[in-house]
Amino acid sequence: MQEKHTLAREAFKDWVFCGKPRQGTEFLLMRKYRTSFKLALRYWIQNEERIRADTCASHLTNEDYKKFWKCINRLNNGKATKYANYVGGATGEVEIANTWCNHFQ
């Protein structure tokens, strides 16, 4: 994906340098590389979860446990919350604080 982005970016810069022509080699190359990058990006977005799972599975298959757990940590880290939202039937900061205050009195 990074390689396709680099090619598309360089082709775009060359096209701009040539004065943004609407025909010719620079225009066709810019369109070709841009289309290729957008196709790869669309594929990545549609299959992101599967691609990430396959990457973790390949680390496990290769018995590289350190990379495997690092991959799992990255996948699950976005789902973690720093603070509790619900404690003993109370929701919100003030209610939770009052619940703990009453508990320790």
Give structural notes.
With 105 residues, the protein is mainly α. It is built from 5 helices and 2 strands, in the order ααααββα. The chain has helices at 2-17, 25-46, 48-61, 65-77, 93-104, and strands spanning 86-87, 90-91. Strand 1 and strand 2 (90-91) form a beta hairpin. The longest helix has 22 residues, at 25-46. The mean pLDDT is 88.
List the helices and strands and how they pair.
Blueprint: H1 2-17, H2 25-46, H3 48-61, H4 65-77, E1 86-87, E2 90-91, H5 93-104
Antiparallel strand pairs: 1-2
Average of the residue pLDDT scores: 88
Tally of individual domains: 2
Measured by DSSP, the beta-strand proportion falls in under 5%
Using only CA atoms, what is the Rg?
A: 25 Å
Oligomeric assembly: single chain
Number of helices: 5
Largest sheet, spatial ordering of strands: 1-2
The low-confidence runs, each spanning 5 or more residues with pLDDT under 50, are none
Q: Considering DSSP H and I runs of 4 or more, what fraction of the residues is helical?
A: over 70%
N- and C-termini, Cα separation:
59 Å
Shape: elongated
Q: Could you spell the SSE succession in H and E letters? A: HHHHEEH
Structural class: mainly alpha
Number of distinct beta strands: 2
Major sheet characteristics: 2 strands, antiparallel
Characterize this entry briefly.
This protein has helices spanning 2-17, 25-46, 48-61, 65-77, 93-104, and strands spanning 86-87, 90-91.
